Structure formats: structure tokens, C-alpha cells
Amino acid sequence: MRISNFGAVSRTKIRADRCSVHGEFDRTLVEAFEGDNRVIGCQRCRFDAIHGQDSAERTEAVESKRWETRNAALFATGIAPRFRGCSLENYRTPLDGQKLALDTCRAYVDQFEESFAAGRCLLLMGNFGTGKTHLGCSILKAVVTRYGATALYVPAADIIGALKASFGRDVASSEREIFAELAGVDLLLIDELGAQGGTEFERQSLHQIIDTRYRNMLPTIITSNLPSTELAAYIGDRALDRLRENGGQAVAFDWDSARGGDQ
Asked: pLDDT tens digits for 206-221?
């Protein structure tokens, strides 16, 4: 079960083929999270090469397996195609505030093992189009590739929509399963919190997610267009305090929107 529609690697059978050693196999095109797609040949040949003696074939097979594992982990983040190319390296910083935001996010990645142990959260707050989602997704990608962490990107609206849909008949995911998915990853990014209608159901649901991760000492990243006073009113003072506990930081994105540009 996944809340996101972007959580699975696309694998397309190109054609049946025959290996001179292992016989018939399916040659498969594997979608790349970023960059070029790859064609995967005989899996048994790759397995044998990985477990064989040092050689060019073994080096190539190990690299191929690592790419596939990393690729699958990145798809599992649920990051939508628009944000897959986002990175800390391509975030533009012509303004001092943008440099501070980038430095804070770099430090969060560099210190992630400590932040993970402390359940330390991060709040990215400010105007539309200022790069909050760019930096949030960049952090997720970095901790997945550098530390092997599990991570998940979910817009707050998708969480509310999935929970409401779970109340219907013959649904694929129960409310319990949705909360379990959100509480189970090492790092959760809830995007655009506060852009919803602000009903009591929404507030209680989002508070429950934050509170569950807090009790399990799991870090959460929040992006929001609301100032801290309005965010406190939206999710409650208690939830906001928990996001700031153990050194959790709030970064203000107080410059104009860059929508229509590269940011």
C-alpha cells in the first residue's frame, strides 16, 4: 500500500532473449528515477559475476546492482517527476536568505545520523514558489543515497484525501495502514501543510501523524506557506512544539516567488 502514485519502478519487458549459459530470460527496460533508463540483461549472469573473482565483469555487475537498488529506493520516496531532478547542488542562491536555507538543509543532511537518533525535525516555512519543496525533496534524496535511509514525500492534501477515501467500501488501504506507512519511514516530508481547508478532521489527522512520529523519535520535515502563528493554530501548539524539540529548526523563506524560473 502506498499513498503516493509515484512509489514504484516501472519495468518493461522488451523482448525474450537467450543466454548462452543460463538459457531464456526477459530483457527488461528499467525506468531511471533521474537520468537515462537502463536495459537489464540476464540476472543470473549478473549474480554470478557479483559473486565471482575480481574482473571488469564483476565491477560492472556490482555497479549495475547498486544502481538498481538505489534507483528503487529513490522511487520509494514517492517524489513526483517534477521534483526528481531537485538537488542541493542545483538550488540557486542569489539572495542571502536562500544561502542560509541551503546551508541549513546541507547541515541537516550532513548531521542526519545525529538528527535521526534525536528525532530532530525541520520546518521550511514561507511564500509560494520560494524553493521549499525543492530543498525538502533534495534532503530526502540525499539521505536515501548517502545513508540508505527510507524516506517518503507526501503532500498534506494527499494524506487527507487518502484518509477520507479509506472510509469507503472496498478500499485498498485502511486508515490504520495509511498511518502505519507514514509512521514507518525513517524520514517523512509533509509538503504544503496548511494549504487545505483547515477542518477539524484535517487538524486531528495531521496532528496524529506528527505525534506518532514524535513518540517513535522519527524526524519529520514540514513545508508550509503559513507563518508560525497560523501553523500553530492549524496543527496545534503541542504539535508545533514537538516539531521544534531537540534542536528542530524553522527556516523562513521570506523572498518573492521564483515560479516561472529555475527555482
From this structure: 989 999 999 999 999 9
66 and 87 together in one domain: no
Q: Report CA-CA distances (Å) from 86 to 43, 46, 90, 139, 185.
A: 31, 31, 7, 9, 21
Tens of pLDDT, residues 15-38: 999 999 999 999 999 999 988 899
Beta carbons of 220 and 249 less than 8 angstroms apart: no
CB-side neighbour CA atoms (13 Å) of 52: 13
Whether the Cβ atoms of residue 46 and residue 39 lie closer than 8 Å to each other: no
CB-based contact 204:25 (threshold 8 Å): no
Q: Does 2 reside within a domain?
A: no
Residue 164 DSSP SS3: helix
What's the CA gap between 216 and 219, in Å, rounded? 9
In-domain check, residue 56: yes
Supply the mean pLDDT for the chain.
Answer: 90
